[in-house]
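Margin note: ligand = zinc ion.
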Amino acid sequence: MDNQQINYNYNCDEVKHVIFVKEIMERIPVDDQSMEYKQIVQLIEEYLSLKCQHSLVLDTIDVTTEKSLPIMYCKWCFTTFNT
Ligand SMILES: [Zn+2]
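Resulting structure:
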């Protein structure tokens, strides 16, 4: 982590609260979620894709010990994007 990075979230309070709700909703593993619950999560994701002032971070995830894949995600809402 780069501590020099400016770490200011420009999102309005509404978006910040929705991000907070998303974090709480994701505490239930996807496999244990009901269909109605998943619909709420999907609505939240759609809302954030429109309203979040994304701040993209490029990172890599290790798939195996020898292979890693690049991923890009928003550091506020953790939406992932194709790289
Ligand atoms: Zn975002």
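The two ends are 20 Å apart (CA to CA).
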